[in-house]
Amino acid sequence: MRYLTVLVRPAETGAFHPLGRALSEDPSLTREAIHHVELLDDGTVLLFAEGSGDRDRYEEIMADSPAVLDYLVSGERQWMAVSQFEATELAERILDRQRESDVVVETPIYFTEDGALRITYLGSDPAFQSLFEDVAADAGVAFEVVETGEYDPEQASFTRLLTARQREVLDAAVAVGYYDNPRTATHEDVAERVGIAPTTAGEHLRKIEARVFGALVR
Hints:
Elements: E1 2-10, H1 18-25, E2 29-39, E3 44-53, H2 55-64, E4 68-75, E5 78-86, H3 89-100, E6 104-111, E7 117-123, H4 125-136, E8 141-150, H5 164-176, H6 187-194, H7 198-217
Antiparallel strand pairs: 1-7, 1-8, 2-3, 2-6, 3-5, 4-5, 6-7
């Protein structure tokens, strides 16, 4: 079996759903990952997602959205949320195509900093080709291949867990000695090498560690 990791973006609207746009554009919230997404028989979407930031603001957006039928949140600054909402035509088309294809989606699906979805599919090259042709024919979706190769379920591919920016920060942290024993670098050193603020470097490193350690014990 092979894997195909892609970045998927809405080509025109900037979001797959108005609800997603509202959450993405709020500076107090970060959409981290999707752990399960399913198109139900009634045309609504069931979503199990991970986020961080202002939980009260998240609940306010969900409560105000006319598309949301129900939701439940657990956690404070880092939280998990289950929601059911009405699908847009684009979201329904994407999820229906995924359901009918011969590929399996490896979860979690990660959000990138620019709003794309980083998705890893499992299957065969012909199945990937068929999926790619279907998506390429859909004017509403932009599809970018990141990497592909043989899938080894016994060996975690940590690079697939991280966004490009997170991999850049991780490379910098290793290079300056942040993970040496004893540690010989600080968030400031990592930030200087990457060209970002120390607080931003620290936030990236915390997210990197959470994803990698989570994969190790999953």
